[in-house]
Design brief:
With 71 residues, this protein is an all-alpha fold. It has helices at 7-17, 26-34, 38-66. It is elongated.
Length: 71
């Protein structure tokens, strides 16, 4: 069930494995996934981590401002 991944990760896996990747066999899916380079996976991971950190910082800043504290 594709419910947890980000838009960027979904785009990467859709490009690599196809839109209906969840309907095929696990063997076919594994073959398609293995074609994605380590460098590309690392870039996707790095971008996701950066987005998470930016989100957390922004949320903390809004919370602190709501409490009357300077962020």
């Amino acid at each position: 069930m594709p419910s947890w991944d980000s838009a960027a990760a979904d785009a990467l896996w859709t490009e690599a494995c196809g839109k209906d990747r969840w309907l095929g066999t696990t063997e076919k899916l594994e073959q398609d996934m293995r074609r994605v380079s380590d460098a590309r996976l690392w870039r996707c991971r790095t971008a996701a981590r950066k987005a998470l950190i930016e989100y957390a910082r922004g949320r903390l800043s809004r919370q602190l401002n709501g409490l009357g504290r300077v962020a």
